[in-house]
Amino acid sequence: MSRRLIRRNSVASRLMIGTGILALLCFGLTAAISYWRSSEALLGSSREMLREVARHEASEISSDVGSAFNTGATLANTFRIERRADGVSRASAASVLREQLRLQKNWLGISTLWEPEAFDGRDSANINAPFHDATGRFMVYWSYQKDALVREALHSYDKPGEGDWYLAARKSHAPVVLEPYYYPVAGVDTLMTTLSTPIMEDGHFLGTVNITISLDALQKRVARLRPLNVGQAILLSPTGAVMASADTKQVGKKMTDAHTQAMLAQVRSGKVSSDETQLAGADWLRVFVPLRLGDAPEVFALGIMVPKHHVMAQARSLLWVIIVVGLLSAALLSTALYVLLRRQVLAPLAEAVRVSAAVSSGELNSRIAPRRQDEMGQLLLSMGTMQAQLRAVIEAQDDMATRHDAGEMSYRMNAERFPGEYGRMVAGTNDLVDAHVQVQRQLVTVMSRYAVGDMQADMPQLPGEKAALSDAMAATKRNLQAINRQILALAQAAESGDFSTRGDAAAFDHDFRGMVEGLNNLMQTTDINLAELSRLLQSIAAGDLTARMTGDFRGVFAQMRDDANATASQLAMIVSSIQTSAVSIKGAASEIAAGNQDLSQRTEQQAANLEETAASMEELTSTVRQNAEGARQANQLAIGAASVAAQGGQVVNQVVETMSGIEASSRKIADIISVIDGIAFQTNILALNAAVEAARAGEQGRGFAVVASEVRTLAQRSSGAAREIKHLIDDSVQRVGEGSILVHNAGKTMSEVVASVQRVTDIMGEISAASQEQSAGIEQVNQTVTQMDEATQQNAALVEEATAAARSLEDQAVQLTDAVAVFKIEGSTVIAARQRTPAPVAQHLANKSGKVGAAKPRLVKSTSTSDGRWQQF
User: Fold this and answer.
1) Could you give the angle at which helices 11-84 and 90-103 cross, rounded to 10 degrees?
2) 187-196, 745-754, 777-786, 843-852 — which is least confidently predicted?
3) Mean pLDDT of 487-512
4) In the prediction, which pLDDT does 716 show?
5) Other CB atoms within 10 Å distance of the CB of residue 773
6) What is the mean pLDDT of residues 726-747?
7) Residue 251 near residue 245, CB atoms below 8 Å
8) Of 154, 159, 191, 196, which is closest to residue 178 (Cα–Cα)?
9) What's the CA gap between 307 and 46, in Å, rounded?
10) Residue from 364, 350, 259, 337 nearest 301 by CA
11) Residue 853: pLDDT band by 50, 70, 90 thresholds?
């Protein structure tokens, strides 16, 4: 059977093919990773090697070309030092430059150019002189022409572009390297560059020393570079111009593409640039390093390149070895797996298929005997376990059915005894039984809620034949809700005071009808008794306090009748007492109103008198205040005059001190001029001695004699100038002394003026202070009178309010008499309300208010202090 299964199903073949494919994929992935890692390692080591080669060559080139910068810097410092010591002439400086160019055969030219009057101050004497131009500035230019050294004048040095060798150094105060340029030398265009070194002194630009070198030697050196025996090198200027390259056609051209400019920007920042590029259809590895020449700020780029395929040759060889080994290993693994599967897997698998077929046909008693402990043996063991679990589930279901038939409705199978899907199958059977039992429990729960009056519960609508249970419960709920609505309607009507409402007893049968009829009888009895009580209250409201409740009442209604009759009797006694008191209140209110009227008239007269006094005090206060203000202003003017006089005195004193200082300084200057005159005299003597010594030296001392003569001339001029300055200083000292005497006199006069003004200021201050005190006293008296007037006005207002209150009380007493006169009381007659004419209180208050308000002065807020002052007054 196992052989037929093997022939019928190609499991072994499929596994063998799949394993072979997986092996190929694994070996392929291994080969790819190995190739990638080895490629990265080779590229990294190659780039590092190129960096080292580039750094070494850049250092060598910088050292060779930088020597020219060092020479230029040495010449610049020499000229600067000799110029300061007046020890170099134009001819000697030109000779020095010529000698330097003669010693450096690889230089094409050397030159120097100075700012106007910066070298020796004799530019005007050299205008259009040999080797000079119309400016007379010191300039030297030596160059090789047909192997001979020739000196020429410089030109175009002030034009941007042509004169950048000079203008750039003057602007930056730093060494400058020009972009490579072609210039004919012996009839041949030669690529060259110029190195310019500025001559600086104390931060000031004096000129430049310039060296022009050919780039042919640099081109040959770069062309000889062959890294890894297959690479090449290239040297770029800061702007991308090719200064040297293995490809001579590229020399002098400018590379302006974005990739090159980005590389140059990275190199200018001091970083090494590494990238890959295509040249002649092949990939190349490139490394550019920064290259500096001397102290110049320009950064050049030296690049080293090698073909990428040359670097990757070793990685490609390793890749082919990995591919061949992987293919052989995949073939061997697939063959071995095929043989193993036929012996170890397919035979046990056939036994498992037989058992599965028996279980699927419902036969759960098959014998399963695993003979191995490997995975196939475990498969057969699992098949036996599955068969046993199915038998256990069927037995548990039979047991639960038996117990339910016996009335044990709460019994359920234990799903935890069964693993996995068997447990879920048992749990599903339990859920089915729970659904039937749950319907019965819902019926019991709903009926329990109806029994306690909770009509909110509903029986869920059941499906199918169970719907009869839902319908019966719904009919029960409708009948209970109907009788409940009848009871609620009667209760709500009684709560709102409507006892005429009756329930519909005909709509119910049996006990429900008896309940509604009993409620109707209760509503009728309550309606009759409350109607009798309402009649009594209506009589009292109409003023008839003699009415009483009569009739046959029972229980609480009899108590209500007795309480209502007692209330009517007590109310009649109270009304009788109120009628008597109202007459007495009216008479007392009339007497109070008459007394308040008389008090109001006297208070108004007193207020008028105080108003006149307050007006007089206001006028007196205004007059005194004006006098005080005038005195204060006069005092301020006097103080200002005193301040101005004091400032004038201080200024005069400062002028006196300044004049004294000027006099002292002038005398010191005269002394210094005397010293300078003596120094000039001594210098003249020394110059004369130097001239004598130079004459003794003969031809060798001629130059020194000229210098001594110039020094003597300068000493004589200094002596004459010193004498003139001394004469002027002496005259200034005399005039300053006379001015000091006049200023001293003016200072004494200003001191006397300041003392007089100060006395006037003191007198005006005393007058102002006395006026202020007088004004303050009168102001206090005025304030006291004003507060008295305010208090009188307040008293008048209070009297008027009391009069109005008495009139109002009298009116209310009349109204009270009229109100209680309407009641009818047993054993007495109706008291007629006496008619009276109400006092015109409102008109009276209006007249009084208008009279007092017309004479009311300026109001001041009343305080407890004002009351004390009133008592003293």
Assistant:
1) 150
2) 843-852
3) 82
4) 63
5) 10
6) 72
7) yes
8) 196
9) 11
10) 259
11) very low
Dig out the tokens for 820 from the structure.
Answer: 């209680």
Q: Looking at the predicted structure, is the pLDDT value of residue 860 above 80? A: no
Three-state secondary-structure class, residue 584:
helix
Q: Which tokens go with 225?
A: 């570079």
Crossing angle of the two packed helices 11-84 and 346-360, in degrees rounded to 10: 120
> How many CB atoms lie under 10 A from the CB of residue 490?
20
Amino acid, single-letter form, for residue 629: E
Could you give the CA distance from residue 318 to residue 309 in angstroms, rounded to a whole number? 14
Bridge partners of 544, per DSSP, are: 824
Q: Rounded to whole angstroms, how far apart are CA atoms 660 and 640?
A: 31
Please give the span between the terminal C-alpha atoms of the chain, in angstroms, as a whole number. Answer: 145
The span from the CA of 797 to the CA of 687, in Å, is 118
- Give me 160's structure tokens: 């941007």
Instruction: Say if residue 241's pLDDT is above 80.
Output: yes
Eight-class DSSP state of 543: T
Assess contact for 781 and 620: CB atoms under 8 A: no
**Mean pLDDT, range 764-778, rounded to an integer:** 72
For position 843, what pLDDT does the model report? 42
* Measured CA angle at 451 (ends 449, 457), to 5 deg: 25
Give me the mean pLDDT over the 466-495 stretch: 80
The identity of residue 217, as a single letter, is A
Q: Which residues pair with 183 in a beta bridge?
A: 190
Task: Name which of 696, 694, 692, 719 is nearest 704 in CA terms.
Answer: 694
- Kindly report, residue by residue over 530-542, the tens digit of the pLDDT: 777 788 788 877 7
> In which element (H, E) is residue 437 found?
helix 420-451
C-alpha 857/C-alpha 784 separation (Å) is: 13
Please classify residue 178 by burial: count the beta carbons closer than 10 Å to its beta carbon, then call 0-12 exposed, 13-18 middle and 19+ buried.
middle
Residue 472, number of CB atoms within 10 A of its CB: 12
Q: Return the number of other C-beta atoms located less than 10 Å from residue 233's C-beta.
A: 22
| Residue found by looking up tokens 């210039």 in the block | 183
Please answer whether residues 235 and 242 qualify as being in contact, where contact means their C-beta atoms are separated by less than 8 angstroms.
yes
- H/E/C letters for each residue in 96-135? HHHHHHHHCCCEEEEEEEECCCCCCCCCHHHCCCCCCCCC
Question: Of 143, 123, 108, which Cα lies nearest the Cα of 207?
Answer: 123
CA gap 268, 290 in Å, rounded: 7
pLDDT at 481 over 90: no
SS3 413: coil
Tokens of 786: 């004003």
- Contact 441/460 with Cβ under 8 angstroms? no
3-state secondary structure of 840: coil
Q: Which two tokens stand for residue 390?
A: 């199915």
Both tokens of 736, joined, read 């300053």
In sequence order, the 6+-apart residues with CB closer than 8 A to the CB of 99 are none
As given in the structure block, the two tokens for residue 778 are 């009168």
Q: Side chain identity at 314, as an amino acid letter?
A: Q
DSSP code for 254: B
Q: Which residues of 414-453 are buried (b: 16+ CB within 10 A; e: fewer)?
A: ebeebeeebbebbeebeeebeeeeeeeebeeebeeeeeee
pLDDT of residue 863: 39
Strands 176-177 and 242-245: unpaired
Beta-bridged to residue 606, according to DSSP, are none
**Average pLDDT of the residues in 408-424:** 79
CB count in 10 Å sphere of residue 72 = 24
| Nearest Cα to Cα of residue 303 among 249, 240, 253, 248 | 240
Instruction: Specify the amino acid at residue 863.
Output: T
What the block records as the tokens of 585 is 């209140």
State the average pLDDT over residues 126-141.
91
Q: What is the pTM of this model?
A: 0.36
- Sort strands 176-177 and 188-201 into parallel, antiparallel or unpaired: antiparallel
Q: Report whether 839 contacts 593 (CB < 8 A).
A: yes
pLDDT of residue 836: 43
Band of the pLDDT at 833, cuts 50, 70, 90? very low
